[in-house]
Amino acid sequence: MPLGYLVFRSGFLPKVLGVMLMLDCVAVLVWFLQFFILPGSLAISYPCSIVGFLVEVSLTLWLLIKGIEEERRT
Predict the structure, then answer these.
(1) What is the arithmetic mean of pLDDT over 49-57?
(2) Considering 21, 37, 58, 68, which has the largest number of Cβ atoms within 10 A of its Cβ?
């Protein structure tokens, strides 16, 4: 949740990534609680896994693609 809030407030990364990271935090909490409350049910954990995968891949690609773009001095 703190990383999502920091990304949301920063001007370097898009606000959508910050919101998605905060949703990923909620999805991980749901997955964790589901493991203890409903251990046999996988219907909740699969959507949470998809959200986490999309968010982490999006953040990684953004940092790899946009993080490299520097103004080169000649």
Answers:
(1) 86
(2) 21
